[in-house]
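Give me the fold.
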Amino acid sequence: MNEKTRNEHDNGELLRIEDLYVEYVSGGAVSKAVNGLNLTLSRGEALGLVGESGAGKTTTALSILQLLPDHVGYIRKGDILFHGESMLKKKEKELDEIRGKKIGMVFANPLTSLNPVFTVGHQIAMGLKKHHKLTDKQAEEEAAKLLEMVGIARYRLNDYPHQFSGGMRQRVGIAAALSCNPELLIADEPTTALDVTIQAQILEIMKDLEQKYNMALIMITHNLGIVAELCQKVAIMYAGEIVEYGTVQEVFEHPAHWYTYGMLHAIPKLTGPREPLEPIPGTVANSQMLPGGCKFHTRCRHCTVQCEKEIPKLMKINDDHYAACFSGVGVKKED
């Protein structure tokens, strides 16, 4: 570990992603899923990773855990540092000690992430026995407590995933992810396909647990309301790049990238005068044929010649706000 990395680690930095490029190769076609992503996360910090489907959010999460599909997903460039150590240089045995124990993950679809042939209690207890060396009886008791913590009665410990509703399965997934008190929890669209009442319950559980354990959180979502509820920082992704980053309040109140502006103005407002929604025109950039220049320029009403030809870098607006936009939303950037 060099002196710079050691100092950053000592100052509370938990995760650093440096110039990350990830591709998927299938049938001769190459999809550029993540393109030069840079990101840092401190201990106890909650970050919202926001963007449309195909933006590269889940790929980023799988890259952190080194869970990209074999012979399909490849990290072409960059590094991912956890506690100042490269995840890309670790052996599989070392990664197994990190997955679940230090970094937990809640997957988008609990029906596919939970094994249908094992009881939920068994699946939660597996991590406890592996990482904390508990006996079967001790692990079962801890699994029961975890279920109760997420609002599921302990008598359901021996039930199977198919016996639970979608919301209850997601609670089981959260309990399993938190079983070893991870330092970082990655939640990938944890409220997908759940009704609004269950969504609210799941978010309340995650908020309480985040505060209780002081763990860092990466909330992957396309729902800006969830980010406003749970996170202090937000990173807006488009076509595998972070196009805007900052505190939730600063980015939501003063968006400086036209993509962020478009997302915020496509949300119906419950108060104030009725106004027509402003949908973002066009479709998400094709990862197999990404446009040159700013990846968003083909959908941007404020596109300039510079946008078509040059790739914008994240520029500092203030200490709490960065954006990669040549024709930003009326925000004066600092020199």
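Confidence is low (pLDDT under 50) at residues 1-10.
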